[in-house]
């Protein structure tokens, strides 16, 4: 007598819930950058908004921490990274593997303030050219090293094709979030951290602080489109 085996049903494993779920489709423009006026890019350190969003930005690229990609994906957070040529050169595969958008931070990380226009253009445009070649897209946002800039910097950045000069309102160092004003993150804040050996501690500190303050990290470039 023939017997018929009962069909085996399987249930796909449930995707682990991320710390932050996207509140909209990332990569779609939510707001535009302020206009370029008198040939100088606008300076942005905070984005006024009525939604509970915050922005994480990561600078330099000096340490290619092996846990960075995993942490970003598990958290559901897509940072904006500002890379120097001297640190990013030769590490294209690493940075392209991250769920990030790459922006500019000069070639050699000098203090631009007070430097001649041609010097600043060489640093800013040269870095933009390098990133466009390595990543297939020219960056749209620029951050000056140390946050230092002058009118010449803003003029140079505009001539190199940037939409905005980006600074910050809070920073993460040694596993602690540090505020320029107040004692918590606010909607529209731009947070600075770096690719350092303390990446895990710093990124985790930011995630926990954002969650504690009721904010969702979203991509900066979506609000400077």
Mean pLDDT: 93
Overall form:
globular
SSE order, one letter for each helix or strand: EEHEHHEHEHEEEEHE
Largest sheet: 7 strands, mixed
- Radius of gyration from the alpha-carbon trace, in angstroms: 20 Å
Helices, by number, come to 6
Estimate what percentage of residues fall within beta strands: 15-25%
How much helix, percentage-wise, in residues? 25-40%
Low-confidence stretches: 1-13
Short description:
It is built from six helices and ten strands, in the order ββαβααβαβαββββαβ. It is an alpha/beta fold.
Task: Describe what this molecule looks like in 3D.
Strands 2, 3, 4, 7, 8, 9 and 10 form a seven-stranded mixed sheet that branches. Strands 1-6-5 form a three-stranded parallel sheet. It has six helices and ten strands, in the order ββαβααβαβαββββαβ. It has helices spanning 68-75, 85-88, 92-96, 117-135, 151-159, 199-212, and strands at 43-44, 53-60, 80-83, 101-104, 141-142, 164-166, 170-173, 176-179, 190-194, 216-217. It is α/β, with parallel strands linked by helices and 225 residues long. Strand 5, helix 5 and strand 6 (164-166) form a beta-alpha-beta unit. Helices cover 26% and strands 17% of the residues. It is globular.
Topology (elements, then pairings):
Blueprint: E1 43-44, E2 53-60, H1 68-75, E3 80-83, H2 85-88, H3 92-96, E4 101-104, H4 117-135, E5 141-142, H5 151-159, E6 164-166, E7 170-173, E8 176-179, E9 190-194, H6 199-212, E10 216-217
Parallel strand pairs: 1-6, 2-3, 2-9, 2-10, 3-4, 5-6, 7-9
Antiparallel strand pairs: 7-8
């Amino acid at each position: 007598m023939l017997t018929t085996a009962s069909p085996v049903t399987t249930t796909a494993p449930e995707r682990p819930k991320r710390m932050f779920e996207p509140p909209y489709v990332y990569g779609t423009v939510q707001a535009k950058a302020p206009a370029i006026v008198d040939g100088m890019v606008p300076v942005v350190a905070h984005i006024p908004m009525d939604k509970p969003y915050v922005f994480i930005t990561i600078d330099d690229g000096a340490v290619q921490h092996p846990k960075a990609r995993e942490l970003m994906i598990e958290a559901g957070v897509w940072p904006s990274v500002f890379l120097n040529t001297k640190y990013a050169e030769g590490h294209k595969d690493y940075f392209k593997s991250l769920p990030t958008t790459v922006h500019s931070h000069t070639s050699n990380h000098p203090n631009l303030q007070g430097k001649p226009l041609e010097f600043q253009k060489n640093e800013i445009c040269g870095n933009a050219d390098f990133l466009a070649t390595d990543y297939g897209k020219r960056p749209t946002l620029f951050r000056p090293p140390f946050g230092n800039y002058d009118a010449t910097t803003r003029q140079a950045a505009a001539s190199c094709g940037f939409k905005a000069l980006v600074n910050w309102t809070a920073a993460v160092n040694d596993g602690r979030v540090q505020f320029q004003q107040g004692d918590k993150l606010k909607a529209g804040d731009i947070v600075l951290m770096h690719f350092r050996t303390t990446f895990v501690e710093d990124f985790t500190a930011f995630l926990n602080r954002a969650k504690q303050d009721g904010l969702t990290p979203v991509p900066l470039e979506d609000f400077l489109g």
